[in-house]
């Protein structure tokens, strides 16, 4: 019940954000998805292309296999939603059962045959989110983490650490964890927007404000939009000039 309430909240946030930032999305419950996979639900298995099925069979780790499948399933459901509201005949006529969502450089997903469409996927059990857009986009979701000082020094800017420590110094460790998790999702979403994976020095990405200025990257000005509750944080990243 708790997970369904969280998913409902995430869906509401994404629905309100989607029109402004021009993307389609899908949020799924990984526990329900696993039951459908193991139950051989054709509504799930039928959406994968032959290429994707061959990749699925190569995964020996069950957890990674489910995550990979869930990301592709969510991505294709997001494509279906985009098909319903597009004025492009090329997009409207996509056969999602024949399209493959693969991993490219730095494990960034891409929709094979549709280079003008961008996709971003994130999962943190039991949630999985996928976004599809004509614009560059990044998404990250994380369950609330317990933050330790060494992690702060290795991944966070001085400005972010100061904001987090203000809460810790007031003995409000839960709020400090919430804020640190929020900052982390913003960093991850920005990294996915740039398609550089973990090759980005997170200590140089200050996410205290909604606008982040970056140097030496293809996108130098990024806007992040976030939602948070006690269970998880979700952040989206967009190239600011698109807004």
UniProtKB/TrEMBL annotation:
Residues 137-210 form the 4'-phosphopantetheinyl transferase domain. GO terms for molecular function: holo-[acyl-carrier-protein] synthase activity; magnesium ion binding. One of its GO terms (cellular component) is cytosol. It comes from the Bacteria. Keywords: Transferase. The keyword Transferase applies. It holds the Pfam family ACPS. GO terms for biological process: lysine biosynthetic process via aminoadipic acid. Belongs to the P-Pant transferase superfamily. Gsp/Sfp/HetI/AcpT family. This is 4'-phosphopantetheinyl transferase superfamily protein. It comes from Ruminiclostridium herbifermentans.
